[in-house]
Amino acid sequence: MGARRRAARDGxxxxxxxxxxxxxxxxxxxxxQALPGGPAQVARLLGYLVQRTIGYGLRWSxxxxxSGSLPALTGAAVPGWSPAxxxxxxxxxxxxxARGAVCVEGTDLLAALVRDPRCRAVEVLRRAGVDxxxxxxxxxxxxxxxxxxxxALTDAGLTDAALMDAGTRFDCG
Length: 173
Description:
The protein contains 10 helices and no strands. By secondary structure, the chain is mostly helical. The longest helix has 16 residues. It starts with a helix and ends with a helix.
């Protein structure tokens, strides 16, 4: 299930980084393998994310996630996306481009998520017992501080809408 459907089902106004993390862990085996605690930690984390979808995250309902930890790469709001989730998707794309890839991989998004220590995804990871510093080191080994501009996204044929749509499905099509 994609992050967009998960947010709608949960009654959330927008996709946030916890929705992205939940979808990423369900869809991408390499992202699950990156977790330092192995299968037991993945199970604990997915259990926590499921609890959030059935009510634990109610304190987040109706709020906009904007951790302010990462500099906004474009500064433009993306309808239906929290600022932190949109920035994570942009950073994941920048990381993929910096390593010469056309498609964003799950580990690109995971690296972007853990780079924002105040986003909801990191809060979920920490509460589930994930050492986010160790996780960041594991997924951040190749490309760091990649930056992409609006012009580079447009030149590549990717508007924010196209980038966000691809991110909810974790594919390039």
